[in-house]
C-alpha cells in the first residue's frame, strides 16, 4: 500500500473515532420546526442559545420551515418519526396527535417533584387551565405561550370623512359597510382574515353551542339564520373573505382598497397606511347574553414520537421559556401579544408595553366574553368544516344545506367515522 493510501486510511479512522467520541459525549438534540420570522425568530433563537448554555444534557436546534402546508408536513413527519420535537401552534392542532399517542403527556413532567413547574395551577387563568386540560385523554399536550385575538382595523380618515362611527356591533358593522359601499364603490368595506373565528362567533352569539364533548357532536345545527346573515353580507359585497391581492388583508388595507378588516392584533407591524390614519378597536359583538369572543392562545406542542429523552428535553426547554417570568414576558413582547402567564404579567415594563399597544388593549377589552374550545379528536376537522361552509354560503349556496353538511362532517370527525 502506498504511503498516501496509508495516511488516508489513518486520517479516516481518526476522523471516525473523533466523530464517535463527540456523539457519545454530546447532548440530546431537541428539534424545533419554526415558521417565525424577524423579531420572533431572533428571540426564539436567543432563548434556545441561553437554554443550551445552561444545559449539560440537551441542545435545542431550530429549523426554519416554509409556511405553506406546514401543519400537514409536520403531521406526516411526526407519524413517520422523522419530525420535530416542538412546534408552536394551537391546542386544536395538538388534538390531531392525541389518539395516536404522538404527543407527550406534559402533566407527567409538570407535576414531577424534581423537574416540575412549581405552583403550576396558579400560573394561568382558569379559562386557560380548562383549555389545556380539555384534551380527550385528560392529559396536557401543549402550553400557551402568547395570547392574541381578532380585532377591528379601520381606516380612521375614511370613516371621519364619511361621518361614520366605529362599529361595535354586527348590526352597526353592516350599516357602516353599506354607507362605505355607497360612497366609495371602489373600496371593499370589510375584509375577514379568519373565516372560522368570525363564523364561530356569529353562531355562538345566535345562542348556539359548540362541541358537546360527552356526546361527540356539535351544537350549532340551528344557527341557520346567523350563517345566512354572514353569507348575505359576503354575497352583497359588504364583506369579503379573499383579499384582493391575496394573502392577508393588511396589504390591501394599507393601499386603501379595504376600509376595515377583522384580523389578528399581531398584524400591527404590517400596517403601513398609504396616505391615511388608521385605528384599531375591539372586534364587533352582539353585546347581549350570548356575546362571545375567540381568544387565540398559541404555544409549544411537544411530540413524543422521537423518544422519551427528546420529549423530556423538549419539556425542559418549554418550562425554561414559559415558566421563567422574564423570558415569557419577553416572548409576549416579541410576538406583540399578551402573556397568559400571571407571573410574567407582573414583570416590570409589561404594563407599559401593553399600554403602548392599542391593538392589545382591544383584545384585552374583550376578555370578559372570551371563550375557549375543546381540543378533542375532530375539533380541527370541525374548524375546517366551518370554514368550508362559510366559503360556500358566501358563494351563494343555501345556508341550511351548507350548515347541515358542515354539521354532518363535524360529527363524523368527532365520532371518528
Short description:
By secondary structure, the chain is an alpha/beta fold. It has helices at residues 3-25, 38-54, 70-79, 91-94, 107-110, 126-132, 156-161, 170-183, 195-205, 224-235, 250-254, 308-322, 325-335, 350-355, 358-364, 379-394, 399-414, and strands at residues 28-34, 58-64, 86-89, 146-148, 150-155, 188-192, 211-212, 217-218, 239-240, 258-264, 278-282, 293-294, 296-302, 370-371. It has two domains: 27-146 and 297-364, Periplasmic binding protein-like II (D-Maltodextrin-Binding Protein, domain 2), CATH 3.40.190.10; 148-295 and 372-414, D-Maltodextrin-Binding Protein, domain 2 (3-Layer(aba) Sandwich).
Walk me through what this model shows.
This protein is α/β, with parallel strands linked by helices. It folds into 2 domains: 27-146 and 297-364, Periplasmic binding protein-like II (D-Maltodextrin-Binding Protein, domain 2, 3-Layer(aba) Sandwich), CATH 3.40.190.10; 148-295 and 372-414, Periplasmic binding protein-like II (D-Maltodextrin-Binding Protein, domain 2), CATH 3.40.190. Helix content is 44%, strand content 15%. It has 17 helices and 14 strands. Strands 9-6-10-5-11 form a 5-stranded mixed beta sheet, sandwiched between helices. A 3-stranded antiparallel beta sheet has the order 3-13-4. The model is unreliable at 1-24 (pLDDT under 50).
Order of strands side by side in the largest beta sheet? 9-6-10-5-11
Beta percentage is 5-15%
Question: What overall form do the CA principal axes indicate?
Answer: globular
Query: Mind telling me which CATH architecture of the largest domain this is?
Result: 3-Layer(aba) Sandwich
Instruction: Kindly report how far apart the N and C termini lie.
Output: 67 Å
User: Could you give the count of β-strands?
Assistant: 14
